[in-house]
Every structure is written in structure tokens, then in C-alpha cells.
Design brief:
Blueprint (H helix, E strand, L loop, with lengths): L2 H11 L1 H13 L8 H14 L4 E4 L3 E7 L7 E7 L26 H17 L7 E7 L8 H7 L10 E12 L3 E3 L2 E4 L3 E8 L3 E2 L9 H18 L13 E9 L6 E2 L2 E10 L2 H22 L2 E8 L4 E3 L1 H15 L4 E3 L10 H4 L4 E9 L20 H15 L1
Parallel strand pairs: 3-4, 3-5, 5-16, 6-15
Antiparallel strand pairs: 1-2, 2-4, 6-16, 7-14, 8-12, 8-13, 9-11, 10-12
Length: about 400
């Protein structure tokens, strides 16, 4: 039997086992950097497979190595993330979250179960493939600074040195049985923006006595939107091709109908795919804020929490993975993905080693499994786990 057929057979045989793993993880979600029981459970699953590992990386992270034949040939990293989101689940399923207000609404339970499923296959067939697999179960993908950045600082890419990296992410708008790839630039960098506008509070009926920070904030948001999203004032030359999103989702004044507050807090996000442009915008935001503050005789401070870098898929590795996926699933089930302005901390890995980050179809319209990630009704077609574990094992040995 060819290796591909062996992998498919094991993915089918292990399906119920992987499904139970995913359902356990889904029922017991934990927030970022608090994945203590999740880490315990994954460690026990690795013990059952018979794999050795190290715990405590970046707090709750797990790292191990699985060796095939000719183990020095390459060291491929397979990454899964473990954390959940602060969302109350509304699904009526047997594996519904038992932790009120916490839910695996972004599919990290699927990612972990798929990697475990792939490791079951790869361990069973370790005399049939060459190289080594470094597997990691990563905490804290959902919050800055991102568990990936911490694991890298703690040496996860070294000793032994990683040659390339692969990870997958659920994609509910894609039908189960399909996967998607994109070569080159794929996902945006992300920065959190916090702006404080200080004016002078007072009684609303006495406008001569106050400087309304709400008006200052409104003008600032409008001007920033005009300059960066509509006119693209600063992008006309060398940054004209850099995809850009600058958006504000929160403004808080804490005044009343007749009370003008002293200050207003604004929060937003900036995303792009050019690191030079990214750094320049950080300066330009404060410049625009200073101009508005001077006009109103107010004070505006801008604080930027620099988040994940842009995610780039290595052309050679991703092309190889696309061909391998077409071979495994059929060309009709492998799609090309568009650019996304969403962000992922796997980007830290993609900046360090040749990487491929792809999408696993998890939707099923006939079963009404269509809810998006980060929603309280997100779920997957469980058959995606058979595809996810089998394809990842196949990519690990031939991608």
C-alpha cells in the first residue's frame, strides 16, 4: 500500500478517537495563557501515542520531537494553538462548553485535535517517512503579545533547529473536504491603538466654559478615517500598494445629557502588510492627533500596542503543499485564498522560517453548520477532523 493510502486509512481509523479529543477540548475551554487543564489533557494524549515532550514553554506550552527515518534530513514544525475566547456558547450540543463565558469559538480545539491526529498517523508510520517533526501546542494566540512570540524567545525554533513550519486554521465558510492556500503575503500585521483626548469638562448648557473632548475625538476619528482609508493621503507613492485598515471600534466619554466629561478614550486597530509603512503610520497618528489638539486647545495622547507582524507563506513550501494537497484531496478540493486583513500570531513563525499557513474547510450548509469564528454558535462538521489530521500528516512527509 502506498504511503498516501496508509495515511488515509489511519485518518479514517483514528477519526472517532480524534473526534472525542476535539469534543473534550471544546467542552473544557480555557482562556489565553490559562490553558492548564488543556495542557494536562494534551500531555496525556501524547503519552497514549507514546511520544516524549517538554512542558512549561511559555507557561502552558508543549514541545516535542517525532523522528522518522534519516532523522537529520529536515526538522518540520507542526503548530497547534490551545486557547479559547471569552464568549458564552449558545450551541445545544453534548460537548457544549462547561466553562461559563469561555468557548472554543475560533477552532483552536480543532487545531490541537488535528495535530494530535496527525501525530498518531506519523508515529504509526515512522519507518515510512524521512526527517523529524517538532510539534508544539501553543498558548495565548488570541491576545498580545501572542504565545508564538514567547515560545520563539524561549527557543522553540532551536535545539534542534527548525527548517520550516506548517499550521492550519478552521474556515467555516468553506465546505468540509476542501482546503485553501495562498502563496506569499496572506494576513496582515495588527496593532492596537489607544487614544486619550483631554479637554475641559463642564455643564452642557455653558459651552463657553468647556472644551468638549467628544467633539475633539469625533473630528480626530473622522480625519484619520479620511486620511488613511479614503484619501490614502500618505500612501500615494512608495506605500500605494500596501493593504491598509485603520478603524476605531470604541469611544467612551462617561458624561451625561448635560455633563461634558473631561476626557474621552478611543480604541482601534491598525493593520497592514508593509513593516516600513506600519512604523511610519505610528508616527503619523501622533502627528495628526497633535494638529487636532492644537486646533481645539486640548491634549491628545496616542499609545500603540504593537501586535503580530504580517503573515507570509513561503512560495516554495506553499507551492509544494498545494501540490501535495491536490494529490491527497483532488485538485477540485484545493482553492486559492484571497488576502485577509485579519491577523494570526503564527506570523511570528513565518517571519523566522519558511512557513505555510492554510485553511481547513469546516462548514456544512446541508447540516446548517455555517456560523463564523468568534460567534457563540460556531461549530464544525466533525468530518473535517479526518481531513485535517490526514492532510497534515501527508504535508508533513511530502510537503
Amino acid at each position: 500500500m502506498e504511503l498516501k493510502e496508509k495515511i488515509k486509512a489511519l485518518a479514517s481509523t483514528n477519526y472517532e478517537r480524534v473526534k472525542k479529543i476535539r469534543e473534550h477540548l471544546h467542552a473544557n475551554p480555557e482562556l489565553s495563557f490559562k490553558e492548564f487543564k488543556t495542557s494536562d489533557y494534551i500531555a496525556s494524549a501524547l503519552d497514549e501515542i507514546g511520544l516524549s515532550y517538554t512542558r512549561g514553554i511559555a507557561g502552558t506550552g508543549i514541545v516535542g520531537v517525532l523522528e522518522g527515518m534519516n532523522k537529520e534530513k529536515r526538522m518540520l514544525l507542526l503548530r497547534a494553538d490551545m486557547d479559547a475566547l471569552p464568549i458564552t456558547e449558545l450551541n445545544n450540543v453534548s460537548y457544549k462548553s462547561c466553562n461559563e463565558g469561555v468557548m472554543h469559538a475560533c477552532g483552536h480545539d480543532v487545531h490541537s485535535a488535528s495535530v494530535l491526529g496527525a501525530l498518531m498517523i506519523l508515529n504509526e508510520l515512522k519507518n515510512d517517512w524521512e526527517g523529524s517533526i517538532k510539534f508544539i501546542f501553543q498558548p495565548g494566540e488570541e491576545v498580545l503579545p501572542g504565545g508564538a512570540s514567547i515560545m520563539i524567545k524561549e527557543g522553540v525554533l532551536e535545539n534542534p533547529k527548525v527548517s520550516n513550519a506548517i499550521a492550519q486554521h478552521v474556515f467555516p465558510s468553506m465546505e468540509t473536504g476542501k482546503v485553501g492556500f495562498r502563496k506569499g503575503m496572506y494576513m496582515a500585521s495588527t496593532d492596537e491603538i489607544y487614544i486619550t483626548v483631554k479637554g475641559k469638562g463642564g455643564h452642557a448648557a455653558m459651552p463657553a466654559d468647556y472644551i468638549n473632548p467628544l467633539l475633539v475625538a469625533s473630528e480626530l476619528i473622522s480625519k484619520l478615517h479620511q486620511e488613511f482609508m479614503l484619501d490614502k493621503k500618505y500612501q500615494q507613492d512608495k506605500y500605494k500598494d500596501a493593504p491598509t485598515v485603520l478603524a476605531f471600534g470604541k469611544i467612551e466619554g462617561k458624561g451625561a445629557t448635560n455633563v461634558i466629561p473631561d476626557e474621552v478614550a478611543i480604541a482601534g486597530t491598525f493593520r497592514t502588510m508593509d513593516e516600513n509603512w506600519r512604523n511610519e503610520v505610528h508616527t503619523l497618528l501622533q502627528k495628526t492627533a497633535d494638529e487636532i489638539a492644537s486646533k481645539w486647545n486640548a491634549q491628545i495622547s496616542v499609545r500603540i500596542e504593537k501586535g503580530y507582524p504580517f503573515l507570509v507563506n513561503d512560495e516554495v513550501l506553499t507551492d509544494s503543499c498545494i501540490k501535495a494537497a491536490q494529490d491527497y484531496l483532488g485538485k477540485e478540493n484545493v482553492e486559492e485564498l484571497p488576502l485577509r486583513m485579519t491577523a494570526e500570531d503564527f506570523a511570528f513563525f513565518s517571519q523566522k522560517v519558511p512557513s505555510c499557513f492554510y485553511r481547513l474547510g469546516t462548514g456544512n450548509k446541508e447540516k446548517n453548520i455555517t456560523s463564523g469564528v468568534h460567534t457563540p454558535t460556531f461549530d464544525i462538521d466533525p468530518k473535517a477532523l479526518e481531513v485535517g489530521s490526514g492532510l497534515m500528516a501527508w504535508l508533513a512527509v511530502v510537503g
